[in-house]
Amino acid sequence: MSEQKVPARTKWGYAFGGIGKDMCYALVSNFLMYYCTENLGVSALFMGVLFFFARLWDAINDPIMGTFVDNTRVKFGKYRFWMVVGTLANVVAVIFLFNPYWASHAPRVYIAIFYVVWGMTYTMVDVPYWAFNSNVSDDRKERESVSTLARLLTSLGALSTQVLTPIVIVKLGYDAVTGTEHKEKGYFIWAIIVSAVFVVTMFVASVTIKERNYVSEKKDRIKLKEAFTVLTKNDQLVIAVIVFILINIAQNLALGSAIYYFKYVWGNEQLYSKFVIVLGASIGIGLLSFPLLSKVLYKRSGRLGHLMLALGSPIVGFLLMFISNNFIFNNASTNVRFYVCCGIGLVSLIGFGSVTILLTLIMSDCVDYGEYIFGKRTENIVFSMQTFLVKFAGAISFLIIGVSMHIAGYEGSMFDSNAVAMSVVPDSLKADLNVLMFILPPAFLIGGAILFATKYKLAKKGKMEEIREELQVRRAAAEEGEVQESAATD
Q1: pTM of the prediction?
Q2: In sequence order, what are the residues at sequence separation of 6 or more whose Cβ sits closer than 8 angstroms to the Cβ of residue 367?
Q3: Nearest C-alpha neighbor of 6 from the set 258, 296, 210, 265
Q4: Count of C-beta atoms within a 10 Å radius of residue 424
Q5: Which of 354, 326, 360 lies closest to 340 in space, CA to CA?
Q6: Any residues with CB less than 8 A from the CB of 312 and at least 6 apart, and which?
Q7: Bridge-partner residues for 181, per DSSP?
Q8: Per residue, what are the HEC states of the chain?
Q9: How many angstroms separate the Cα of 384 from the Cα of each of 63, 125, 230?
Q10: Which of 121, 125, 128, 119 minimizes the C-alpha distance to 57?
């Protein structure tokens, strides 16, 4: 077996760990704002501002965490060590976040504290998890294989939370004695269940993966000051980060406003779960078709052509859904409009599946490029930016959602019932949610596509192959030097 070949045990164990991780992440990123505004009475404006300022702290904290991981030298392995420690810390934060009994006394202060703690502890597990992809192999095809499987299972984990949460919180919070619903109780129990799944899946990952050590890792430890130099001087990493922040803002705007959209524009929040199933199926098709598309497109145009195609389909899809819902089928029944919307989404949002894999692969390319420039591998520092950009994009998205909904007249829990009569919802709120759901996402996607096409030079055909060949020569020379130095010492 080739040294670059990744064992099936490592591939599946690693990917399995992401199921629980993204289940927990989806619970917080997709439902915390809705939980707080609809159940705790916290304003959307406050939540949006909180998300934004918490991410400003992450801009400092995430690279620091990446430096800690890269400098970790333990027998258990730096990736596995932090994946275990980070998981245990993060599940505690998730359970505290959704504890309505302690939050009821001072919900704003309570949520603010534990949301910041959640962000810090999530970095502890997410950075080493995705950074392992650049450590697992130097072979492009093997990295794509590992990343595809991991993204497929993590997407499955996120999808399960997105679909099940609106359903199970009603059942878990139902009081059979009084016949009343207590959704806040349902959220709390559900958070405990999801956290337990997280612990189990990440434990499996930690005992199945195998880490490799590079010569460049064995020498000097990376200083904190160097970490910020790596991030700012790696020009391709800077471009990649900005591009994927724009892409993630688009995704978060659509998904973050969707549950409000279905409740206050279409009058039924339960449609959200059905729509997410369609979205998940579309992304799943995109993930499964990635190897074939990559094989065809990479030979012709490198990463550039693949990403342009992946972004083009949702751009068209969002605009078609907006036109369909508001002009062509605006007088049709809710069922007809919903099925048309789902049909368009199923076909057009496939590109998001490819985007999730391309994100990890491009960050891995930036790791190799950084070693090419600086002579040191800094996987965890680089991938700390992936963790940061995902959280930062979410913060920007929810700041936009919170501020715009506040201006449009939204107040927390405007209607207690799941089914809302559309005639009583302000027209300003309906218009705002249409913009958030269908207009702003393609605008951000277009911006990301233009920046990537014009500024990201590593996407050019053959560029990364040249860099990796040079790195192999350098590593071989460094290893030979170590052997000679050891022989001379002896």
Answers
A1: 0.81
A2: 131, 134, 377, 378, 379, 382, 383
A3: 210
A4: 10
A5: 326
A6: 351, 449
A7: 174
A8: CCCCCCCHHHHHHHHHHHHHHHHHHHHHHHHHHHHHHHHHCCCHHHHHHHHHHHHHHHHHHHHHHHHHHHHCCCCCCHHHHHHHHHHHHHHHHHHHHCCHHHHCCCHHHHHHHHHHHHHHHHHHHHHHHHHHHHHCCCCHHHHHHHHHHHHHHHHHHHHHHHHHHHHHHHHHCEECCCCEECHHHHHHHHHHHHHHHHHHHHHHHHHHCCCCCCHHHCCCCCCHHHHHHHHHHCHHHHHHHHHHHHHHHHHHHHHHHHHHHHHHCCCECCHHHHHHHHHHHHHHHHHHCHHHHHHHHHHHHHHHHHHHHHHHHHHHHHHHHHHHHHHHCCCCCHHHHHHHHHHHHHHHCCHHHHHHHHHHHHHHHHHHHHHHHHCCCCHHHHHHHHHHHHHHHHHHHHHHHHHHHHHCCCCCCCCCCCECCHHHCCHHHHHHHHHHHHHHHHHHHHHHHHHHHHHCHHHCCCHHHHHHHHHHHHHHHHHHHHHHHHHHHC
A9: 6, 10, 12
A10: 119
Tokens of 226: 């160097």
CA 15 to chain centre: 15
Per-residue pLDDT for the chain (490 aa), expressed as one digit of tens each?
Answer: 345 688 999 999 999 999 999 999 999 999 999 999 988 989 999 999 999 988 778 777 777 777 777 777 777 778 889 999 999 999 999 999 999 988 888 899 999 999 999 999 998 999 889 888 777 877 878 888 888 899 889 989 999 999 999 999 989 987 777 767 788 999 999 999 999 999 999 999 999 988 776 544 444 555 656 666 766 788 998 899 899 899 999 999 999 999 999 989 988 888 999 999 999 999 999 988 988 888 888 778 878 899 999 999 999 999 999 999 999 998 898 899 999 999 999 999 999 989 988 988 898 898 899 889 888 777 767 777 777 778 888 889 999 999 999 999 887 666 655 556 666 788 999 999 999 999 999 999 999 999 999 999 998 878 888 998 999 898 888 877 765 665 566 5
Determine phi and psi for 461, rounding to 5 degrees. -55, 125
Q: d(Cα 234, Cα 248) in Å, to the nearest integer?
A: 21
Structure tokens at 446: 């277009």
Which residue, among 243, 222, 242, 235, has the nearest Cα to 381 in the 3D structure? 222
Number of C-beta neighbours around residue 239 at 10 A = 20
